[in-house]
Amino acid sequence: MATGLPESPIESWMVVILAEAGIPAPVLQHSVRDLTGRERYRLDFAWPELKVALEYDGYEAHEGRAEHDRAREEDLRRRGWLVVRADSADLGSPTRLLRELRTAFRQRRTAA
């Protein structure tokens, strides 16, 4: 689990939460590229084969960026990604987050 890829202690903690819950290991800092090969986005956690992403909304990185985050998520959806969002509340009580991830995995596996 110690890959050096999480970009914050909170992302490292999220890796532990996912592993302890039996969630398959994600790709960390996954690059989403456009048709020219230019990086458009870097996802905190991704399961590329299912096009499921988990984005952690930390206070500092997302303060005052709600509109930007909504536009980014909408663009990812147009590119076929299903995005699950997490915040600090999910670190203490990850039940909602884990339920949403498992639902996303089921949806994608049955659609494939």
Round the Cα radius of gyration to an integer and report it.
14 Å
Structural class: alpha+beta
| CATH class division | Alpha Beta
CATH topology: Endonuclease, Chain A
In what range is the share of β-strand residues?
15-25%
Poorly predicted tracts of residues: none
- Strand order within the widest sheet? 1-2-3-4
Percent helix range: 40-55%
Element-level helix/strand string: HEEEHHEHH
The end-to-end distance, rounded to whole angstroms, is: 28 Å
CATH architecture: 3-Layer(aba) Sandwich
Total number of domains: 1
Please work out how many helical segments DSSP would assign. Answer: 5
Sketch the major β-sheet. 4 strands, mixed
- Number of DSSP-assigned strands: 4
The backbone outline, from C-alpha atoms, is globular
CATH superfamily: VSR Endonuclease
Mean pLDDT over the residues:
88
